[in-house]
Amino acid sequence: MYKILILLTGLTLPLTVQAQTAHEIQRFQLAEVKQGVAVDAEHFYVINNTSITKHTKASAKQVAAWKDSTGLLKHLNSGIVIGNKLYCAHSNYPDKPMNSSIEIFDKTTLKHIDTHSFGLFPGSATWIDFYQGHWWVAFANYSDKNSDGGRDNRWTTLVKFTSQWQQVASWAFPALLLEAFSPKSTSGGTWGKDGLLYCTGHDKPELYVLKLPSRGATLEYIKKIPTISEGQGFAFDRSHKSKWLQYGITRTGNYVVVSEIK
Questions:
Q1: Rounded distance between C-alpha atoms, residue 103 and residue 251, angstroms
Q2: What is the CA radius of gyration of the chain?
Q3: CA dihedral sign of residues 107, 110, 111, 117
Q4: How many Å apart are CA 136 and CA 180, to the nearest integer?
Q5: Beta-bridge mates of residue 86
Q6: What is each CA distance from 9 to 19, 148, 250, in whole angstroms?
Q7: Could you tell me which residues are beta bridge partners of residue 106?
């Protein structure tokens, strides 16, 4: 049995894969960095509860700004740039009952141009992505005073919609991640260029990698990547083909952090 153990160990060592991690490249300190960041080829967009600022990637110079003047918006969470539009997940957090919407802005001027309402939905929309012709939206639930309807964070759900917002499927998050999120929930997420799903929690410096299950209704956990940024809404810079760059935030000090995942 001892010889077999040595042989098996020898066979498995060459197959060991070095874990990925995020290496900080640059950081920008801004007046307010609270909820998330989106990015395109030339700019990044800082998303706060009721305001958005647009900055050059080279120097973080602010080139546009928007602030809600209606009182109708409560809690923008994260966003994604598609074409000439910035799509932001929005909810009435921490009010109850939970209701959510997607708020849409012209990325050039940051003018608010459209909205899509989910109405009263069992969860607060925290992040949005568009992948393989479908919308993907995470609806968060919480295990603290922000719980609604008797639900805890086990009710956090990833929902897949058609391009016309018809719901076609949904998945629960694995228990391991829910424990890592607790008492909060997922705050950021997007599909990676490798076809895997990446998401963050509320404040831990960790990026979680998932995939759709081959059967059942719960996402499959693959691994965890240590990061510099601390949870919240993040974005992958898809304008870089050779590098895997992540834009994230750390609310302590109000920093946008640019990292390369290796």
A1: 23
A2: 19
A3: positive
A4: 22
A5: 81, 105
A6: 19, 50, 41
A7: 85
CA distances from 252 to 72, 255, 257 (A): 27, 7, 12
Place of tokens 């800082």: 46
| Nearest Cα to Cα of residue 181 among 138, 244, 213 | 138
94 Cβ partners below 8 Å, 6+ apart?
75, 145, 146
DSSP code string of 20-60: P-EEEEEEEE-S---SEEEE-SSEEEEE-SSEEEEEETTT-
Hey, what are 162's tokens? 């058609």
Residue 5 · residue 47 · CB < 8 Å: no
- How many CA atoms are closer than 13 Å to the CA of 95, on its beta-carbon side? 10
- Read off the pLDDT of residues 222-244 as tens digits, 9 standing for 90 and up: 999 999 999 999 999 999 988 99
Two structure tokens written together for 137: 């939206």
Tell me how far apart the alpha carbons of residues 15 and 10 are, in angstroms, rounded to a whole number: 10
Cβ–Cβ < 8 Å for 62, 73:
no
Q: Is residue 163 helix, strand or coil? A: coil
User: Could you report the per-residue pLDDT of 136-166, keeping only the tens digit for each?
Assistant: 999 999 999 999 999 999 999 999 999 999 9
Block residue for tokens 């009710």: 155
C-alpha to C-alpha distance for 249 and 227, rounded to whole angstroms: 10
Nearest to 255 by CA among 234, 224, 225, 226: 234
Q: What is the pTM of this model?
A: 0.92
